[in-house]
Design a protein that fits this description.
Layout: E1 5-6, H1 14-19, H2 27-46, H3 57-61, H4 64-71, H5 74-97, H6 105-132, H7 146-154, H8 158-165, H9 175-194, H10 197-209, H11 211-216, H12 223-228, H13 230-249, E2 250-251, H14 254-273, H15 275-281, H16 286-303, H17 313-320, H18 322-344, H19 355-375
Antiparallel strand pairs: 1-2
Helix pairs in contact: 2-5, 2-16, 2-17, 2-18, 5-13, 5-16, 6-7, 6-9, 7-8, 9-13, 10-13, 13-16, 14-15, 14-16, 18-19
Amino acid sequence: MNTGTLAPQDGTRQAAAHAAPARSRNAGIDCLRGLAILLVIVHHLALPFRLPLGPSLLGEWWPKRLVDAVSFNGYEAVFVFFVISGFLITTRIIDRDGSLERVDLRRFYAARARRILPLLGLVLAVLAALAWLGVPGFAPEGEQSTFGLLASALTFTFNLYEGRTGWAPAGWDVLWSLSIEEAFYLGFPLLCLWLPRRLLVGVLLLWALGLSPLRDLVPPQDEVWREKAYLPGMAAIAWGVLAALLARRWSPSRGQARAMAVCGVLCLVLAFVWSDVAWRHLYKSGLYWLCIGACLLLLAFHAHPPAPRRGLGPLARMGELSYELYLSHMFVVLAVVAGYRALLGEENAWTFVVYLPVLLLCRVLAGGLEALAGRLGMAAPSGAAR
């Protein structure tokens, strides 16, 4: 039986890595990202105070467990994004620079800025305009101010600001995960340069395994900080980094990759559909199963990229547009919720009807943003992580 092969050490690949062309898109990874962003959008639409699926006619036809799995896994889906991001960023550093300890800081930070800041700046300008106009869902309340929201978003301290002042307006609230990601990537390349390879791997491993304990450090009553704390989200990114390092040293056979993909899907199903089982009977391990499942799928897809399939094309395309979708989808969600309530009031029987139109509108808006970025020379290279 073919047991897979060990890849050469990074040091022996440096010359080839510097000359390596940009990776083409990986359909499997794009589909995984597409699933994650789909769950995020549906979650933000299906919240009980918006347009929930449970009380609709669809809720009478579908099993409750399935309705809940579709409706309430947005937070968990963001952790899948974290894992994917860590995997792709690490892979890209090694492809360009040969190894993590040779990361080019200037090039790394410039690439992150080119990918993140243009669209973020555009979205923040629209958010600020809506806030100043007092539009519900965008206007700050209580201790918050438009300036405070803007400043914290641009300095990636949004979560700290929310933890101090309370939940941000719905239109702004998606920025919490971006703050975690970019705060991690401000320090990660420095750790790569400063720490010996084995020590770096040890730190990442302890960080990854500490995901739940780090989250449990926050008292349950502190709802905002428990959900938006930096270290648990960074632990999920660490899972992705470790998976990428493993992928450089081990190339599984096609049969092994299939088995890993099946196990990865089962782990995600456990985390998304039977999270209550993982909570009650598996030591509250749902987020671990989520990270393990995502890592297994990433390793399998990286070793043997699946061929694009026509039926999965729309999902893969959503994965390609995941950053644009993530930053822009709340404009559509909040507008549709307001329109539905204006027409039908508190009637929830027909809420399920708006879901497909919302997804299509989000897709159109994200595609428009991608086209705008392309015309302005801001598009990310093929296969790049968000």
